[in-house]
Amino acid sequence: MPGLTRVAIATTVAAVMLTAACGTDNNANGSTSPTGRTGSSAAASGRASNDPAGTTTTKATTDAFAAAGFSCATGTLRSSGSTAQGKVMAQLIDSYNATCGASINSYGGGGSGKGVADFLSGQTDFGGSDSPLKPEEQATASKDRCHGADAVDLPMVTGPIAIVYHLPGVRALTLTPAALSGIFGGTITSWDDPAIRDVNPGVDLPKLAISTVHRSEDSGTTDNFTRYLAAAGGWKFPGGKAWSAPGGIGAQGSDGVAKAVAATEGSIGYVEWGFARQYHLAMAEIDNGGGPVALTAGSAGAAVEAAQIVGTGKDLTLKIDYATKTPGAYPIVLVTYELVCTGGNGATADLLKSFLGYAVTDGQAGFDSLGAAPLPASIQSRVQDAIKGLN
Predict the structure, then answer these.
(1) Count of CB atoms within 10 A of residue 361's CB?
(2) CA 10, CA 7: separation in Å to the nearest integer?
(3) Which residues make beta-bridge pairs with 267?
């Protein structure tokens, strides 16, 4: 019977992961997912049926999850935030609910600004953001939101930022950080500009006006993209989550930017990798000085592997070297953080630890199919340790 149970569990998990992956293809912003599937999958996980509070920790269902010291829990959690991790969160929630018999609510999405605001105001149990909390936000949250405990940033998803373009007849394009700064800053206005033509020998670039597309709402993707431009391309405009350069077209979410680029000849924009793939958009290779690098899970992971942990205590904020010239490293990446309280989580503490533990172990598999990349193993280990200390 034990062997049969393991087979049944493995089959259930595999089926759920496949269903979730397929289901998110039609979910443009990754903000919804089926939840609360507690039938046969709950029985397979060995969930206790006489748990009145819905928080009993049960036998772990998968090897990496269990090996790291985590086990299933039931109950509900609320979350919102970064669209960069929307597709990933939809799959994680659906898979965890079915595996562990939980009923975690659908991920709310809405962008990093909403993720921070909802978390700080106590509307969610954890928030998603492409940028870490600011020092003043951490201080406020530690005093009020977390009842005196620390508010910390835990990296969870590597989200490469794709530079997408709509240029008839051109499916191979290389861009430098200087060229990108000129394009989005308004000083390079035509596709046949020498700054683009010189790094694309043999490419027939049309004399066509460039139309840039940026995020219209506060966005961690904007924050990370402009950090890259400032570090590597001489960007002169203010950074942050709000777009500050003049001109261009504003669109809501990466989904909106992707749709605008798909519909506008001569356009260029920045979106999370998953949306570039969903809309079959052409993606530029980036040359930081070490040669053109195409966006892949491996090239994005190479950039995160070299990041430094600059947070203190259980805060694991990363500093990415956007100006890297390492061959094979795709430099325009972001890391999505889960914003959590180290204490004061009350009745949700066990489920919060269990779900985030699942996300940083078994949940990391399959990210590539959703346009994300797993965290390097060394960072996964640090995140696991931090999660175990939540209470």
Answers:
(1) 23
(2) 5
(3) 211
**Cα separation, 370 vs 336, whole angstroms:** 14
* Residues 6 or more apart in contact with residue 75 via CB below 8 angstroms: 53, 54, 55, 102, 103, 104, 347, 348, 350, 351
In angstroms, the CA 70 to CA 354 distance is 6
Element housing 42 (H / E): helix 40-44
* pLDDT tens sequence for the chain (391 residues): 333 333 333 333 333 333 333 333 333 333 333 333 333 233 333 333 333 333 333 333 468 999 999 999 999 999 999 988 998 999 999 999 999 999 999 999 998 999 999 999 999 999 999 889 999 999 988 889 999 999 999 999 999 999 999 999 998 999 999 999 999 999 999 999 999 999 999 999 999 999 999 999 988 899 999 999 999 999 999 999 999 999 999 999 899 999 999 999 999 999 999 899 999 999 999 999 999 999 998 899 889 988 999 999 999 999 999 999 999 999 999 999 999 999 999 999 999 999 999 999 999 987 888 889 899 898 999 999 999 999 9
Sign of the four-CA dihedral 97, 386, 80, 346 = positive
Q: Where are the domains of the chain?
A: 2-150+342-388, 161-302
Phi/psi zone of residue 235: left (φ > 0), alpha (ψ -120 to 50 degrees), beta? beta
Domains 2-150+342-388 and 161-302 belong to one CATH topology: yes
Q: How far apart, in whole angstroms, are the C-alpha atoms of residue 62 and residue 139?
A: 37
Residue 370 contacts residue 24 (beta carbons within 8 Å): yes
Q: Which fold, 2-150+342-388?
A: D-Maltodextrin-Binding Protein; domain 2 (3.40.190)
Q: Which two tokens stand for residue 123?
A: 């509307």
Q: How far apart are the first and last CA of the chain?
A: 35
C-alpha 306/C-alpha 310 separation (Å) is 13
User: What CATH number is given for 161-302 in this structure?
Assistant: 3.40.190.10
